[in-house]
Amino acid sequence: MSADVIAEEGFLRRWARMKSSPEPVEQAVAVEAPVPAVQPPPVEEARPLPTLDDVARLTPESDYSAFVAKGVDKAVQRMALKKLFADPNFAVMDGLDIYISDYNKAAPLTDAMLAALKHAPGVLDRLLGEDEDDHPPAEGEGAPTQETT
């Protein structure tokens, strides 16, 4: 196929045609380059997994990576991380400490706040450009007056 036919056909139509054709589509064969000889990484000596005795010897300057590796007992991991985060360097509040409150418990609105919100429907109607004829009068507003001509 020429490039003009492919460009006119479009991607989706070409994909649908190729998908529905029973003939196998010729695919480009990648020429394999010779693979340079790669030496396997040196095998590390298998260190024994840390225990609770190792946790007792930890200091804030210790390397904690062995305690979070695969295969370490969960109790040992928890104790090591508990010891790590007991360090006062990790107890510093950051700039996001305003978000630590529980916002699931809403504070009740006071009467003063509710009184301040009574004007909101009228302001919103004016801002949104809604006609007052579309809404029934609110309490205390009285019936709309009709002009006579």
Automatic annotation (TrEMBL):
Pfam families: DUF3306 (PF11748)
UniProt-annotated stretches for the region Disordered: 125-149
Superkingdom to which the source organism belongs: Bacteria
InterPro entries the record matches: DUF3306 (IPR021735)
Protein name listed in UniProt: DUF3306 domain-containing protein
Organism of derivation: Massilia arenae
Lineage per the UniProt record: Bacteria, Pseudomonadati, Pseudomonadota, Betaproteobacteria, Burkholderiales
